[in-house]
Amino acid sequence: SLMSNRISYVFGLRGPSMTIDTACSSSLVAMDAAVKNTRLGLCKGAIVGGVNLMMSPHLFVAFSKARMLSPDCRCKTFDAKANGYVRGEGAGAAFLLATSQLTENDRPLATVLGSSVNHDGTSASLTAPNGPAQQEVLRGA
User: Fold this and answer.
1) Rounded Cα–Cα distance for residues 44 and 13 (Å)
2) pLDDT per residue over 72-106, tens digit each?
3) Among 28, 40, 53, 60, whose CB has the most other CB atoms within 10 angstroms?
4) What are phi and psi of 84, to 5 degrees?
5) 40-44, 49-53, 69-73, 76-80: which has the minimum mean pLDDT?
6) By C-alpha distance, which of 56, 62, 60, 7 is closest to 30?
7) Can you give the residue ranges of the Ketosynthase family 3 (KS3) domain (predicted)?
8) Nearest partner of 6 among 53, 55, 52, 49, judged by Cα
9) What pLDDT shows up at residue 23?
10) How far apart are the C-alpha atoms of 130 and 6, rounded to whole Å?
11) Non-local CB neighbours of 9 within 8 Å, separated by 6+ positions
12) Within a 10 A sphere around the Cβ of 84, how many other Cβ atoms?
């Protein structure tokens, strides 16, 4: 997508400029990339944003037919009773600045202590959570 490159162009930003699409994990995968790029010194800071809008019923219908959605409309992360997921909309953005770039006038709202990315690998289905793999990525952060 050209959106991230347009933001870089408009604000005169240099360094990595990318759009990441990993379905529901896109924003966190983008945050992980930004954290790693700032820690490696590839950039001094990063704008990370994400948005999910459900503009059409077609995906809902397809996901329902594929039995990907929770029939009781409840997410049960890390629960043996997990039976699908619940769709939702949202948007957010953050500006990350490498600790070395902070000045005495900067007032950080949070500190990213760690991040990690993986794929669940084989599980009950393509979209079914794999508890051990998700625990592994949490430990890796």
Assistant:
1) 11
2) 999 888 888 988 889 888 899 999 999 899 999 99
3) 28
4) 135, -175
5) 76-80
6) 7
7) 1-141
8) 49
9) 82
10) 37
11) none
12) 20
